[in-house]
């Protein structure tokens, strides 16, 4: 009480006394602090009962005022005094001793305000960065310490200063070898400083120093105490402290200095923190969760997951644990995105090895259907959420492997997880199939070239899906009979598009195994099939008696044109930096004699597509959705293989068009055994659209739903083919207007 009264009296005297020059006033307040230690014998009284906080605040105000009154960058006498007499060193010693109790908080606050308020660069001065480095080491020593708030404020202020001037970080890479040698040379380690004699320090050069080159030559021996202290504070029980510590780490990892990045990844436990906590949150999730809950739970940015335990428990079991996991995943993703390039690569690799491989892979490779479904749904959510380039690449390498060479049937098990995931697209459980197909659909939309190269493109590089015939021989045959090859069949003559009887339609199985043969009518001088021929090929694939969309309003071809135009534009934006060829590789440069394998991924998709009449509606929607995403990609070989019905397939090869042709052939056989096929088809379509209430069950409903999906898919492929052709010849006109003009002309 007496001390508080003294403090009030002192403030009153200062207010009435004539103002002193700033330097004298500054020295007065500093002397008042040092005299306290000389005159006071009771060192157990808290610092708040003394005048020390008031004197420190006055010193800060004087330094701020001095800088405000002087020209920018000019050091005033008060700041010179602080630097010359090593005041920060003395305060550090007092704070470390925490004498009187609470002094550590005061010192931390003084450092924080000094660095935050003073605009001129202070950290280059040896009598600033050296005590700052020492004070950093005191932070995070004790969890839940009363000084945690001041510690994190101080550390974040230092981080912000380093962000402004990244080269300064080299002052904070403390070389262990150098420190050990200095300790040996002194004979007694660190020299003890006397806080009661602050004015007797030797004069030192106060010009800003340059970072020592030893840090770049011996980075493996560097201590990154700033990172270590922040990492310690991420373990605080106070969530606010944890968030601030994570923010500080985000600033530190973004510093571009190579030595700091190397030290960050080699001499700190940052990667261990990221991966251990990811694993911890993942293992806290329930073994079984509804995939819909995983897919639809709200996205939470790290540090902002305010929650209510009662509300979360009422929503679904495990919601809080799921949000915690996704929140930390978001932090890892954002930190790696902000990190210096080499540090980002190392951190992402650690996540792959210590979390994906060690924790997630066993879950994905298990045989329990419930476990497979839950882990696949979680993986799908992870893929959707990851945005950093480095982490996405490592995630993709984990899932698919790093192979880019031609895929062979014998080598599809080379990467076990890739093989298992692709096989799950054709799982006995429809739920697992749908979830895995959805996972690949999301993968295909990620801005990572390796995904497409690994899954599809490496199998199409040599164009050996095309029959190996010399171009000259082909041209000679094409002119044998009035400019037509003797075995050419026009669309109008093709069994698929005629009104022949079912018996005649199926008399020759040749059309089931290959696409319609090429003809000069279908090919332009540059070798490209005319787009309207391709569009009509897809639109006419499903026979009229199996079509039902024309009887329902709003299900026309135009809707798919609009969607295809938007989606193709988005894909082009993603793929434009990948240097894909705009035209197919010339046959002269292709190895057409090498055996063609469509690849494990396309094999499973084509197999699924071939069973579209016998699969559940939801499975068919997902299969066709993945295939349409592939068809949209602006790659010449993929476009040719999936969207050109007139390529001459090599023996034993199949394309998307040939697979659909086989399905249509099967359909035409089966429809004749279903009485009232057309009315039933229309009823099922209206029920799927919600235009008819559910009533009596309809027989053959799976086949009828498959026919509807098939018709819509062919319209979608036709729209994609048209939009891609239009984009290749012109970017200015509206493709929708163009197709309307085309239809009007015809």
UniProtKB/TrEMBL annotation:
<feature type="region of interest" description="Disordered">
    <location>
        <begin position="470"/>
        <end position="489"/>
    </location>
</feature>
<dbReference type="InterPro" id="IPR019384">
    <property type="entry name" value="FHIP"/>
</dbReference>
<dbReference type="InterPro" id="IPR045668">
    <property type="entry name" value="FHIP_KELAA_motif"/>
</dbReference>
<feature type="region of interest" description="Disordered">
    <location>
        <begin position="183"/>
        <end position="219"/>
    </location>
</feature>
<feature type="compositionally biased region" description="Basic and acidic residues">
    <location>
        <begin position="470"/>
        <end position="481"/>
    </location>
</feature>
<feature type="region of interest" description="Disordered">
    <location>
        <begin position="494"/>
        <end position="528"/>
    </location>
</feature>
<dbReference type="Pfam" id="PF19314">
    <property type="entry name" value="DUF5917"/>
</dbReference>
<dbReference type="InterPro" id="IPR045669">
    <property type="entry name" value="FHIP_C"/>
</dbReference>
<feature type="domain" description="FHF complex subunit HOOK-interacting protein C-terminal">
    <location>
        <begin position="598"/>
        <end position="690"/>
    </location>
</feature>
<protein>
    <submittedName>
        <fullName>FHF complex subunit HOOK interacting protein 2</fullName>
    </submittedName>
</protein>
<feature type="compositionally biased region" description="Polar residues">
    <location>
        <begin position="199"/>
        <end position="219"/>
    </location>
</feature>
<dbReference type="Pfam" id="PF10257">
    <property type="entry name" value="RAI16-like"/>
</dbReference>
<dbReference type="Pfam" id="PF19311">
    <property type="entry name" value="KELAA"/>
</dbReference>
<comment type="similarity">
    <text>Belongs to the FHIP family.</text>
</comment>
């Amino acid at each position: 009480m007496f001390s508080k009264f003294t403090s009030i009296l002192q403030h009153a005297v200062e207010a009435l006394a004539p103002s002193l020059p700033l330097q004298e006033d500054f020295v007065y307040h500093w002397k008042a602090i040092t005299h306290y230690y000389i005159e006071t014998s009771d060192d157990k009284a808290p610092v708040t009962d003394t005048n020390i906080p008031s004197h420190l605040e006055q010193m800060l105000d004087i330094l701020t005022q001095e800088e405000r009154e002087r020209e920018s960058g000019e050091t005033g006498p008060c700041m010179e005094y602080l630097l010359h007499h090593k005041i920060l060193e003395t305060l550090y010693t007092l704070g470390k001793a925490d004498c009187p109790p609470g002094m550590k908080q005061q010192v931390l606050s003084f450092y924080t305000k000094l660095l935050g308020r003073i605009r001129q660069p202070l950290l280059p001065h040896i009598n600033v960065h050296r005590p700052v480095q020492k004070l950093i080491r005191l932070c995070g020593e004790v969890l839940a310490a009363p000084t945690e708030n001041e510690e994190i404020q101080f550390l974040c202020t230092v981080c912000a200063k380093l962000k402004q001037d990244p080269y300064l970080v080299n002052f904070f890479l403390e070389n262990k070898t150098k420190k050990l040698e200095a300790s040996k040379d002194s004979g007694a380690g660190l020299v003890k400083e006397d806080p009661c004699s602050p004015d007797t320090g030797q004069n030192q050069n106060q010009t800003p120093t340059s970072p020592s080159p030893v840090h770049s030559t011996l980075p493996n021996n560097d201590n990154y105490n700033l990172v270590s202290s922040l990492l310690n504070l991420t373990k605080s029980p106070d969530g606010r402290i944890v968030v601030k510590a994570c923010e500080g780490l985000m600033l530190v990892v973004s510093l571009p200095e190579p030595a700091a990045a190397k030290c960050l990844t080699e001499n700190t436990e940052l990667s261990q923190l990221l991966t251990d906590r990811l694993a911890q949150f993942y293992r806290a999730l329930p073994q079984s969760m509804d995939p819909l809950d995983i897919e639809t739970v709200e996205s939470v940015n790290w540090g902002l997951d305010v929650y209510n335990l009662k509300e979360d428990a009422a929503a679904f079991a495990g919601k809080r644990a799921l949000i915690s996991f996704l929140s930390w995943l978001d932090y890892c993703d954002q930190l790696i995105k902000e990190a210096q390039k080499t540090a980002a690569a190392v951190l992402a690799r650690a996540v792959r090895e210590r979390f994906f491989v060690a924790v997630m892979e066993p879950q994905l490779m298990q045989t329990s259907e419930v476990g497979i479904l839950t882990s696949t749904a979680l993986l799908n959510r992870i893929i959707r959420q990851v945005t950093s380039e480095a982490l996405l690449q490592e995630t993709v390498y984990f899932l698919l492997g790093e192979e880019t060479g031609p895929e062979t049937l014998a080598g599809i098990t080379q990467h076990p997880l890739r093989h298992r995931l692709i096989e799950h697209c054709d799982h006995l459980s429809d739920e697992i199939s749908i979830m895995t197909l959805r996972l690949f659909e999301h993968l295909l939309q990620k801005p990572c070239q390796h995904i497409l190269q690994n899954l599809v493109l490496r199998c199409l590089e040599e164009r050996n899906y095309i029959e190996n015939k010399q171009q000259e021989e082909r041209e000679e045959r094409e002119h044998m009979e009035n400019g037509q090859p003797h075995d050419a069949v026009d669309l109008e003559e093709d069994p698929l598009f005629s009104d022949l009887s079912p018996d005649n339609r199926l008399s020759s199985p040749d059309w089931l195994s290959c696409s319609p043969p090429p003809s000069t009518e279908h090919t332009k001088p540059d070798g490209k099939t005319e787009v309207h021929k391709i569009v009509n090929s897809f639109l006419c694939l499903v026979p009229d008696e199996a079509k039902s969309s024309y009887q329902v309003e709003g299900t026309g071809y135009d809707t798919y044109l609009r969607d295809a135009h938007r989606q193709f534009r988005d894909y082009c934006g993603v793929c434009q930096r990948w240097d894909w060829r705009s035209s197919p590789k010339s046959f002269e440069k292709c190895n057409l004699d090498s055996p063609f394998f469509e690849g494990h991924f396309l094999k499973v998709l084509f197999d699924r597509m071939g069973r579209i009449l016998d699969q559940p509606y939801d499975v068919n929607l997902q299969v066709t959705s993945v295939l349409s995403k592939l068809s949209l990609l602006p790659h010449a070989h993929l476009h040719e293989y999936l969207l050109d019905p007139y390529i001459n397939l090599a023996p034993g090869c199949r394309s998307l068009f040939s697979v659909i042709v086989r399905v249509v052939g099967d359909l035409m056989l089966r429809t004749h055994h279903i009485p009232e096929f057309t009315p039933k088809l229309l009823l099922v379509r209206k029920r799927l659209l919600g235009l008819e209430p559910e009533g009596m069950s309809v027989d053959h409903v799976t086949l009828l739903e498959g026919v509807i999906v098939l018709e819509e898919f062919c319209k979608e492929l036709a729209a994609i083919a048209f939009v891609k052709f239009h984009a290749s010849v012109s970017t200015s006109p509206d493709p929708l207007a163009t197709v309307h003009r085309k239809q009007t002309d015809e």
